[in-house]
Specification:
Chain lengths: 120, 461, 216
């Protein structure tokens, strides 16, 4: 399973890297990217990424402590919308969003397990 | 030949021969420097790659560095060297090389980082309290008196008052408060005259003894000051110790993080005062049959057991809610700035309303508040010009960006029917770009096409 | 503006034949502003079609309800086998009128004329009945906003300010009363509105507007 992971540089990206350090990667291939804030994520961006991968994992600040107030919320709404579109279209790819603080990777592990489970 | 600077912010040394090989293969000139040993001038380098820890270099820090160094922000890239060394120890240099090749293939955008410092003057709405005015004055911040009729408009980071023409760096809002009991008590309970406030109890304790009686304190989650907590701890200790009364303190949360509070809390506890965390939403209170007491029923958080206590006295502290302040009558901005409330977000400065430069002052916290405002006015912030831009050809003036921007950084030029980003307020969150239905707003160097090819790191393991 | 909603993805798929070239054509006016058929949504749908294996492209033109703008996109339109139009019903018809040889399908359901109440919430405000009298009702159109279009309201089904037909909607007549009361103009409601001539509305058949003075 090929996964693209996108994290905001305030908390998601550091957490994704920390997750990589732990050698617990449950996927065959992961690519990690950083963006300033998850607010930048658009639906088309998600679709374009999914063309070349099986799943997209977004990691950002928790909803109520996003450094840009509503960045994580924007991304959260978009993942929900994209997932419902994918479901409607019977496409088995998925987007997941993990709300993390930079030091903690537990949430990412949980969400990535969910991705794998959905894949099965 | 591209001249590159590697600025290393971690301690591990670099194998020189590999760098030479990389220079030969790609035709680069690489200069390796450690952070402590930064060059004096950064202008000559085509790209500056910071090799460090991902957590230490968020976008704000990069903006700040590009301002300090006087270079175009899009020349600076961060490579999470520390982490990549751990995750991919063998292929570290090849990943770095790939990273640099991709980065060099990107165009440089005409960006500039600039320091923005608001004017050292504030407007207080509706009117400054003496305590606030004093505390602001001590810090050298002028408050201007709001004219009888005026409207506010944004100008860069400042606010502009018309018709007087004055401008201020920040607007401070004093919201009003609403006090209400933490639990709604029926009128029958009021009739027992056993439902009292803290002031009343304080007086009573001075004059009377409560030997053998049961007293319940009910304290809300919001709006109890440290002083009030301290008074509650002291009173309950006195009642338990001196009068051998049974004292219960029902709370949703206990605050002990104040100066000396923890000690008082311990003293109260050791004297036999019982602290109980409970959910107030299912707390029931009713008068006893003889109307000389109040029966309180609640579920403890500890073991989810339903408890019933008959109290001779029920002491409550009111819950203080801050009422939203309506900015609309004052603001003649592009966005209808309606009612504002303090943000409860640990990552954003306290007292912030969310809109840059508008702060909400809370009574009793004037000192801390003026400190925050002083910092905002003096320290300034580094913002980037040209990073986010609106394509006027594509823009359909749907106002989505105006309504989405959390910081109030979008302006509509009414005369020319144009959308403009107020770069002095923009935090580069990109919400406007991702919500724009016409694809008219571009975040230069931050959009999918730009960054996906630059900061890829990872692969098989 | 005209508000429209995206059709269910399954319905859109059912229009298409596997393997054909699809053009998703967005419209840059009303449906862009109500976030259902602009460039963003056009790209989104074409990406989704891509994922599903179609050869899909997207384009957005200024206003699909104008022949000139449609003809500008002639090249892209003729290149495609099927066109999914993300415009309102007017746009789709205009497009089909000028490209009769093409398979064209609507990607949206045109729902109403309304306003954005807040970000992400649109409400109906006008029916286009052809005889505007909102000034008689505190600027709240009972024809549109009352489920029964009562001109002498309210009916007996107004319950704590809500409509009996759709309990999550406000009763228009409650709003009218509240607004007039606030403005001290309740006497306006003493006037009994006579039965109305509905022939100006769509009950009188398709409508036309002719302005001889601008027909050069």
């Amino acid at each position: 399973m090929k996964v693209v992971a996108l994290g905001c540089d305030k908390s998601g990206y550091p957490a994704l890297l920390r997750w990589g350090e732990k050698e617990l990667l449950p996927f065959e291939e992961v690519e990690v990217f950083s963006i300033p804030c998850l607010g930048l994520v658009t639906e088309e961006m998600i679709f374009q990424i999914l063309e070349n991968s099986d799943a997209l994992l977004l990691a950002g600040c928790p909803l109520d402590s996003c450094h840009n107030q509503k960045g994580s919320r924007g991304a959260y709404l978009k993942t929900k919308r994209v997932n419902s579109l994918l479901q409607e279209a019977d496409i088995s790819k998925k987007v997941a969003i993990a709300f993390v603080t930079s030091g903690k990777v537990g949430e990412i592990e949980k969400v990535s397990e969910e991705l794998i489970w959905r894949e099965k | 030949m591209s001249k590159l600077l590697w600025l290393i912010d971690d301690a591990l040394p670099f194998p020189d021969f590999l760098i030479e090989e990389m220079e030969r293969n790609n035709g680069w000139k690489i200069e390796v420097r450690y952070w402590e040993n930064k060059p004096d001038s950064f202008i000559d380098y085509d790209r500056i790659f910071i090799l460090g820890n991902s957590l230490s270099f968020p976008q704000e820090r990069l903006s700040l560095l590009s301002w300090e160094w006087g270079v175009n922000p899009s020349r600076i890239q961060v490579f999470p060297g520390e982490e990549v060394r751990i995750i991919f120890p063998e292929s570290f240099l090849s990943i770095l090389e790939k990273f640099i090749v991709r980065s060099l293939s990107q165009p440089l955008f005409p960006l500039e980082a600039r320091m923005v410092i608001p004017e050292n003057r504030v407007l207080v709405l509706p009117q400054a309290s003496p305590a606030l005015e004093k505390s602001l004055k001590e810090r050298g911040i002028d408050t201007i008196i709001p004219p009888p009729s005026f409207s506010l408009r944004r100008e860069g980071v400042n606010f502009y008052l018309s018709p007087s023409g004055e401008s201020v760096g920040a607007v401070i809002v004093l919201p009003s408060e609403e006090k209400k009991p933490p639990v709604s008590f029926s009128s029958q309970i009021q009739d027992t005259r056993r439902l009292v406030n803290l002031e009343f109890m304080k007086k009573q304790v001075e004059e009377n003894r409560f030997t053998g009686e049961t007293i319940i304190f009910i304290l809300p989650k919001k709006g109890v000051s440290e002083e009030e907590w301290s008074q509650v701890f002291h009173l309950s200790w006195l009642l338990a110790q001196r009068d051998r009364a049974e004292v219960f303190i029902l709370v949703e949360e206990v605050l002990v993080a104040g100066e000396g509070l923890e000690k008082e809390y311990r003293i109260a506890r050791s004297s036999g005062v019982i602290f109980e965390k409970a959910d107030f939403s299912n707390l029931l209170a009713q008068p006893t049959l003889d109307m000389r007491g109040i029966e309180v029923e609640f579920t403890t958080e500890r073991d989810k057991m339903r408890q019933r206590i008959t109290a001779n006295w029920l002491v409550f502290l009111p819950e203080r809610n801050i009422l939203p302040f309506d900015l609309a009558p004052f603001f003649r901005g592009d966005k209808i700035e309606g009612e504002i409330l303090p943000l409860e977000n640990p990552n954003i400065s306290p007292f912030s309303s969310g809109i840059e430069g508008i702060f909400i002052s809370l009574p009793g916290e004037e000192e801390k508040f003026s400190q925050v405002v002083e910092q905002y006015l003096r320290k300034g912030m580094v913002r980037e010009i040209g990073r986010i831009e609106v394509d006027e050809e594509k823009c359909v003036l749907c106002l989505t960006c105006l309504r989405t921007c959390p910081w109030g950084a979008i302006e509509i030029e009414e005369q020319k029917k144009k959308t403009r980003i107020n770069w002095e307020l923009c935090h580069l969150c990109g919400l406007c770009t991702s919500f724009c239905p016409a694809h008219a707003i571009e975040a230069k160097g931050l959009s999918l096409e730009d960054w996906i090819s630059v900061i890829s790191l990872g692969g098989k393991r | 503006m005209i508000i429209a909603e995206r059709k269910p993805i399954k319905e859109i798929f059912s229009f298409l034949v596997p393997g054909e070239k699809v053009l998703v054509l967005g419209c840059g006016t009303c449906v862009t502003v109500c976030m259902s058929g602009g460039e963003k949504e056009a790209r989104e749908l074409s990406s989704l079609l891509h994922l599903k294996g179609w050869e899909a492209e997207d384009s957005t033109i200024e206003r699909q309800c104008e022949p000139e703008f449609n003809l500008k996109a002639k090249e892209e339109i003729t290149h495609a086998d099927t066109i999914i139009s993300l415009a309102c019903g007017v746009g789709v018809q205009t497009l089909a009128e000028y490209f009769p040889e093409k398979k064209i399908f609507p990607g949206l359901n045109t729902t109403f004329m309304g306003m954005p109440k807040e970000q992400g919430l649109w409400e109906e405000r006008c029916w286009g009945c052809g005889n505007c009298t909102v000034h008689l009702f505190g600027y709240i159109c009972p024809v549109t906003r009352c489920a029964k279009s009562l001109l002498n309201g309210p009916c007996g089904g107004s319950k704590s300010g809500k409509c009996e037909i759709k309990p999550d909607r406000d009763c228009a007549w409650q709003l009218i009363y509240d607004r007039l009361k606030k403005e001290n103009k309740l006497e306006v409601l003493y006037a009994i509105q006579p039965p109305r001539d509905w022939s100006t509305s769509h009950y009188g058949g398709q409508r036309k507007m002719i302005r001889e003075d601008v027909r050069l």
